[in-house]
Amino acid sequence: MIKIIADSACDISKEDEKKYGIDIICFPINVGERSLYDREISEPEFYDLIDSCESMPSHSQITELQFEEIFSGYAAQGYSDIIYVAINSYGSATFSNAQRAAAEVMSQKEGFNIYVVDSLSYSAGIGYPVIRAAQDIQNGKSAKEIVDELNSIYPKVEIYLGCYTLRYVKKSGRVTAAAAFAGELLGFRPVILLAGDTTKTSAKVRGDANVVNKIVDITADRIEKGADYAVIGGRDLKYRDDLAKALTNKLGYPPVPYEFRVGGVISSNAGPDVTAVVIMKTK
Question: Which CATH code for domain 2-27+62-155?
Answer without folding.
Answer: 3.40.50.10440
